[in-house]
Amino acid sequence: MELAEKDAVFNIFDMNLWYGDFQALHNLHFSIKKNEVTAIIGPSGCGKSTFIKTLNLMINMVPGVKMSGEIKYQDRNILQGSVDLVQLRKEIGMIFQKGNPFPQSIYNNVAYGPRIHGIKQKKKLDEIVEQSLKDVALWEEVKDRLDSNAMGLSGGQQQRLCIARAIATKPDVILMDEPTSALDPISTLKVEKLITKLKEDYTIVIVTHNMQQAARVSDKTAFFLNGEIVEFSDTDSLFSNPSDKRTEEYITGRFG
Amino acid sequence: MKDEQTITAVQQRLLKSRQGKAKKNEFTGRFIVTVAAIIMIVATISITIFLATKGLQSFLVSGVSPIEFLTSTDWNPTADENPSFGAFPFIFGTLAVTFLSALIAGPIGIGGAIFMSEIAPSWGKKVLQPVIELLVGIPSVVYGFIGLTVLVPFMRNTFSGAQTGFSLLSGVIVLSVMILPTITSIATDAMISLPSNLRQGSYALGATRWQTIKKVLIPAAIPSLLTAIVLGMARAFGEALAVQMVIGNVRAIPDSILEPAATLTTIITLNMGHTTYGSVENNTLWSMGLVLLILSFIFILIIRYLSSRRKL
Ligand SMILES: Nc1ncnc2c1ncn2[C@@H]1O[C@H](COP(=O)(O)OP(=O)(O)OP(=O)(O)O)[C@@H](O)[C@H]1O
Ligand SMILES: [Mg+2]
């Protein structure tokens, strides 16, 4: 095995994934570094969602999935043996394409994670809820109606609430699968600003179809095609000076 | 040139005739469904009016006091002197079997629904679905017959408090089995139609399956789950035949669930045959029917209210 990179959160090595007989990911091999934003781009169906779901093993919910190779997280291969999913997902939060708040109060949404991980004191929960909502710049907008139902928030607010809900468990990593694709430009901008800010405390992996977004928010970019990594490098160099012809074609909009 | 013109002319004529036909079909279709709707509305309204006028006759014509009817526990309409018309024991019996059977069938039905939607979605539904359909298909007289043959002797032999075995509890158990499919199938639909991103959101935060069910899915489905229970109750309080065969049909409020009781429906079915149309006793049976109708309106209102609270 190759030497794992030191400040990496995930070391992915020779990783393959099959849905039944269909191989969706081929020999993935790269690292995701701490406190960086890693963007995953590529045409529809190339395996971006599949990949990001393996990082917190949400992929296990799909029946018939097989995986081989390594995803090293905290010095152990999460693809092998039994992994404590509760702990793993507490440390690795996830944001979905469409905001999915629970149909409960705003407060209970944010407090949900801390509660299931054992925090009971009201005071502690209050603190976490306030801090998390402040971190996503939602506190001012909702502080007077924490008890009202989260389904009443706008789409952009719902998505930021979901980010607050994810950071309330104090994760190390936040995975985002097209977090802004259902949002209007202003809400998108807010979430992007938020990502840039969250980078200081968290490692972020973001799947996006929006190349400008990848260029704006990420440090590293991986270009996926047909389940393989075509190119992985610094975002700046990938966009200004792609080394692979296919990358160039994709980012200049000639296919995909 | 000329050929082309004739062709377009023919086409236009064809088109027109097709449009004409479509218009006619449109009209016929609308006519049929409108008539169907009117028949339904007229039927419902006539039944309601008929039941209301018949049901009020015992109070307006026969001079039975509505207060006595609704609150007194004395039921002796055929007494030569001072006949009494207290239907409260039957109203009580109806409410008791309804709520108690919901209390038993509600948790079991919802439990089964959660099993099918969350625990074993692949084979759970395959096994439980036919079971539910079978339970629905069994006629109520058969339920009553089984209750009479199996449950009543069992009660008599098992509980010292149940002298005859005919009891409120026997009625409740038979009804619980009968309303179980209603509750289970509506509750299952409610659980299955929850958006899957709720489950994902919860699991992604590190929640276990049980935490997800208890803290996210059930709260999200609660209005629909309550609707399932209320619909089960609506079925329970209208059921007559099976209950009548096992409940004992006495005129008093039972002291315990092991004692016999009666419900509005069982009294109506038992007595409608031997009372003469227009007699006081016959009229009071209609009044019981009216009480049932009012109860069912209340159930409908509750269901409406619950459905309007659905957030998803
Ligand atoms: N549950 C599944 N069962 C079988 N095949 C699947 C499943 N989920 C995804 N796939 C297949 O795996 C491949 C990768 O899918 P994936 O959802 O990861 O693509 P994606 O890059 O996220 O696409 P998009 O940009 O459209 O979201 C596709 O060919 C898809 O059809
Ligand atoms: Mg995707």
Automatic annotation (TrEMBL), chain A:
Single annotated GO MF: phosphate transmembrane transporter activity
Xref: SUPFAM superfamilies: P-loop containing nucleoside triphosphate hydrolases
Keywords noted in UniProt: ATP-binding, Nucleotide-binding, Transport
InterPro entries, A to Z: AAA+_ATPase, ABC_transporter-like_ATP-bd, ABC_transporter-like_CS, P-loop_NTPase, PstB-like
Alphabetical GO biological process terms: phosphate ion transmembrane transport
Location of the ABC transporter domain: 3-251
GO CC annotation: membrane
NCBIfam families in UniProt: 3a0107s01c2 (TIGR00972)
UniProt cross-references to PANTHER family, sorted A to Z: ABC TRANSPORTER I FAMILY MEMBER 17
Protein name: Phosphate ABC transporter ATP-binding protein (PhoT family)
Organism: Paraliobacillus ryukyuensis
Automatic annotation (TrEMBL), chain B:
Superkingdom classification of source: Bacteria
Keywords: Cell membrane, Membrane, Phosphate transport, Transmembrane, Transmembrane helix, Transport
Annotated localization: Cell membrane
Record's bilayer topology term: Multi-pass membrane protein
InterPro entries on file: MetI-like, MetI-like_sf, Phosphate_PstC, Phosphate_Transport_Permease
Coiled-coil segments on the chain, per record: none
TM regions (residue ranges): 31-52, 90-115, 127-152, 172-195, 216-237, 285-306
GO BP annotation list: phosphate ion transport
GO cellular component entries: plasma membrane
Keyword Transferase attributed: no
Record carries keyword Metal-binding: no
Annotated ranges, domain ABC transmembrane type-1: 91-303
CDD domains in UniProt: TM_PBP2
GO molecular function: phosphate transmembrane transporter activity
Family: Belongs to the binding-protein-dependent transport system permease family. CysTW subfamily.
Listed PANTHER family: ABC TRANSPORTER PERMEASE PROTEIN YQGH-RELATED, PHOSPHATE TRANSPORT SYSTEM PERMEASE PROTEIN PST
Function: Part of the binding-protein-dependent transport system for phosphate; probably responsible for the translocation of the substrate across the membrane.
UniProt-recorded name of the protein: Phosphate transport system permease protein
Organism: Paraliobacillus ryukyuensis
